[in-house]
Specification:
CATH topology of the largest domain: Hypothetical protein af1432
Structural class: alpha/beta
Radius of gyration: 30 Å
Distance between the termini: 50 Å
Shape: flat
CATH architecture of the largest domain: Orthogonal Bundle
Strand content: 5-15%
Bound molecules: fe (ii) ion
Helix content: 40-55%
Largest sheet: 5 strands, parallel
Number of helices: 20
C-alpha cells in the first residue's frame, strides 16, 4: 500500500550543529524503513532532509522547493526511479540523482546512468559510502546548478567531467561486485564494454605465448561467424602489437584494413604481463571511437584485470605451483612426520586467527600458503639434526635456525609468492627483537609472520616432540600469555585465544 501524495507528510529535518551549508537531500523510497534509515543517517551528517514515498510526491517537492540532490529507489509502484529521473531532469537538469535498488543488474544500472543518475548503488549498501557520495555530489550539484544559470561552456565541461566521473565509478562498482567465475567475468566485461562505447563486435582473446596465437574466450557480434573466422584473424598482428607494447590502441578506418571501420584494443594485464586483449570494433552508428571511449575501456580492463588477477593466479599457475610445493612438504614428511602435520595444523590455526581479525579473503589465502610452507626450509636440514631426540648443540641449533632463510631462497624464484615469503622469512622473529633471522621487532615484523609465530609456538607446545612431551592446552595458553609483548604480539595472542 503506497501513501497518496501528500506534501504535508514530507518532513524537514535539520541539525545545524554540523550543517552542510543547509544542503537539502530528497529521499524517495516506497519502503518506509529504508527511507527513514537513509534520512536519519543524512540528518545525523547535518543535511536537511525531505522524504517522499513515491515519484509523484518527489516531483511535487522538486517543483516547489529547491533540493541539492535526490536519492531514489528504482523499483517503486507507479512511477519508476528511471521515469522520475527523466521528469526531474526536465524540471532541474543540474540536480544530481543517486539511484539505489534491491534488484541490481547491468541493464538497469546502464539505464540509470544513461538517464543521468550520478551513482547507482545496489542494496544492501554501506550507509557511510552513501553519505560520502552525497557529500561529493551535493556539493557538485550546487556548483553545477549555479553555473547552469550562466549557460557557459565551462558548465558543459563540468557536466562532462561529472559524467565521466560517474561512468568510471560505475565501472569500478560493476567490476568490484563481480564475484563470479573467470568465464562469467569475461562475459560481463564484453557486455559492459559494448554498452560503454556502443560497439558492434567485441571479443576477449587470450594470448597463447608458446604458439604466438590468440584463443577466443568470449565473442559478441551481429555476424558471429564472420567476426570469428575473418575479422579477428585479420587483426591478429594488431593484437600481437598490443601484447608486445602493453599499450591500448585506437585505430580508425583510414589507418587500417577495411574490414572494421574503427577499432579499440586494450591489453589485459596480470602483474605486468599481457595475457590477452579486449577488442571492440565498428561503431554501430558508423562514427569512429573517441579517445574518451578508449579511456573507458582501459578503465574497465584495468579494473577487471585486477579482479581477475587473484582468481587466475590462484586457479591455474597457483594450483600447479602449490602442487609442487605440497609434494616438497610431503617429501619432508617422508623423513619427518611432524613437519607435514604441524604445517597443516599451523595453517588451520593461522586462518582461524586471521578470521577473528577480519582479514580480507586475499590475506587469508596468502596465510594458507605461508602456513603450509613456513618450514619448507627444513628440507635442507640434515636428518641427524632434524630428527635428533636430544637437545641440539649450539652448532646444530645455528643450522636449524637457517630454515626460514632457506625457505625464502626456495620460494624466491616464484614471483607469485612475494608476499608469502615475508611471512615465511620472519616466522621466528620475536616481538622484543630477540628472534631470528633478522632480529626484527614489534610492527616491523610482517603481520602474517606474527600470526605464524603465535600459532607455530602453540602447536609445537601442544604436540609431542622427540625431545619433550606435549603440554596441556591450558599450560600452553599460559605460556603464550606470559610471553606477550616479549616473544609475541599481544593482539595476535588475544585473537588466537578467541579461536580456541
Ligand atoms: Fe619454523
Amino acid at each position: 500500500m503506497v501513501a497518496l501524495p501528500d506534501i504535508q507528510k514530507t518532513e524537514n529535518i535539520a541539525d545545524t550543529s554540523k550543517s552542510h551549508g543547509n544542503r537539502t537531500i530528497l529521499v524517495v523510497d516506497d519502503d518506509a524503513a529504508t527511507r527513514d534509515f537513509i534520512a536519519d543517517a543524512l540528518q545525523q551528517s547535518g543535511f536537511l532532509v525531505r522524504k517522499a514515498a513515491n515519484g509523484l510526491e518527489a516531483l511535487q517537492i522538486i517543483r516547489t522547493d529547491y533540493c541539492d540532490l535526490i536519492i531514489s529507489d528504482i523499483k517503486m509502484p507507479g512511477m519508476s526511479g528511471i521515469e522520475l529521473i527523466n521528469k526531474v531532469k526536465e524540471i532541474n537538469p543540474a540536480i544530481h540523482i543517486i539511484m539505489i535498488t534491491g534488484f541490481p543488474n547491468i541493464d538497469l544500472s546502464i539505464s540509470a546512468i544513461k538517464a543521468g543518475a550520478v551513482e547507482f548503488m545496489p542494496k544492501p549498501f554501506d550507509i557511510d559510502e552513501l553519505i560520502y557520495k552525497v557529500n561529493i555530489y551535493a556539493r557538485e550539484g550546487k556548483l553545477l546548478s549555479e553555473d547552469l544559470k550562466k549557460e557557459s561552456i565551462a558548465t558543459l565541461k563540468l557536466k562532462q567531467q561529472l559524467h565521466e566521473l560517474s561512468t568510471r565509478i560505475y565501472i569500478y562498482d560493476q567490476v568490484e561486485k563481480s564475484k563470479d567465475s573467470n568465464d562469467q567475468i569475461f562475459e560481463e566485461m564484453v557486455d559492459l564494454a559494448l554498452k560503454l562505447v556502443t560497439g558492434e563486435n567485441c571479443a576477449i582473446l587470450l594470448y597463447d605465448v608458446e604458439n604466438n596465437r590468440f584463443n577466443a574466450k568470449t565473442l559478441r557480434s551481429t555476424s558471429l561467424e564472420l567476426y570469428r573466422h575473418v575479422i579477428l584473424p585479420s587483426l591478429s598482428n594488431i593484437f600481437r602489437e598490443v601484447i608486445r607494447t602493453k599499450e591500448p590502441l585506437l585505430l580508425n578506418s583510414d589507418e587500417q584494413n577495411q574490414i572494421t571501420n574503427s577499432l579499440i584494443c586494450v591489453p589485459l594485464m596480470i602483474r605486468n604481463n599481457a595475457f590477452g586483449v579486449l577488442t571492440i570494433s565498428k561503431k554501430k552508428s558508423g562514427v569512429e571511437f573517441t579517445e574518451k571511449e578508449l579511456s573507458y575501456v582501459v578503465t574497465l580492463s584495468k579494473r577487471a584485470s585486477l579482479n581477475l588477477e587473484n582468481k587466475i593466479l590462484y586457479e591455474s599457475a597457483y594450483t600447479n605451483i602449490m602442487d609442487t610445493f605440497n609434494s616438497l612438504t610431503t617429501s619432508i614428511q617422508a623423513r619427518d612426520n611432524y613437519t607435514q602435520e604441524h604445517s597443516i595444523r599451523v595453517t588451520e590455526l593461522a586462518v582461524k586467527t586471521a578470521r577473528v581479525l577480519n582479514f580480507p579473503p586475499q590475506e587469508i589465502e596468502s596465510l594458507k600458503v605461508s602456513g603450509m610452507l613456513h618450514d619448507i626450509g627444513k628440507i635442507a636440514v640434515q636428518d641427524r639434526i632434524l630428527l635428533k631426540s636430544g637437545t641440539l648443540t649450539e652448532e646444530e641449533l645455528a643450522i636449524m635456525k637457517e630454515h626460514p632463510v632457506i625457505g625464502e631462497s626456495i620460494l624466491k624464484p616464484v614471483l607469485l609468492f612475494d608476499h608469502e615469503i615475508h611471512a615465511i622469512r620472519h616466522h621466528h622473529e620475536r616481538w622484543d627483537g630477540l628472534g631470528y633471522p633478522y632480529g626484527l621487532s614489534g610492527y616491523d615484523i610482517p603481520l602474517n609472520a606474527r600470526i605464524l609465530t603465535v600459532v607455530d609456538a602453540f602447536d609445537a607446545m601442544t604436540n609431542n616432540r622427540p625431545y619433550r612431551k606435549a603440554m596441556q592446552e591450558k599450560q600452553a595458553i599460559d605460556e603464550l600469555r606470559k610471553h606477550c609483548d616479549k616473544q609475541f604480539d599481544k593482539l595476535i595472542v588475544e585473537a588466537f585465544l578467541k579461536t580456541l
